[in-house]
Design brief:
80 residues, five-stranded antiparallel beta sheet, 2 helices
Length: 80
């Protein structure tokens, strides 16, 4: 089973290679936007947007409500 973790795109670090910094619960990491850029997304348009991350790749853009709900469920699972 694969798990996508919601993260907010904070800034673009390399437009050419599609690299960005994303944040989840205060933890920032460099991620690849390559899969989203294949769908004619522009890197700058993704700053401030929520995405689902899987092994360092942004797989899909999601809305803030979906991101908040998913993060809440992940926190609940880790509390058990």
């Amino acid at each position: 089973m694969c798990l996508g973790v919601p993260a907010k795109i904070i800034r673009i670090t390399d437009k050419l290679s599609g690299k960005a910094v994303a944040e989840t619960d205060g933890v920032r990491r460099e991620v690849s936007l390559a899969m989203l850029l294949l769908d004619n997304q522009q890197a700058n348009e993704l700053v401030g947007r929520w995405v689902l991350l899987h092994v360092g790749f942004a797989m899909a853009v999601i809305n803030e409500e979906e991101a908040t709900q998913s993060l809440r469920l992940l926190r609940e699972m880790s509390d058990d």
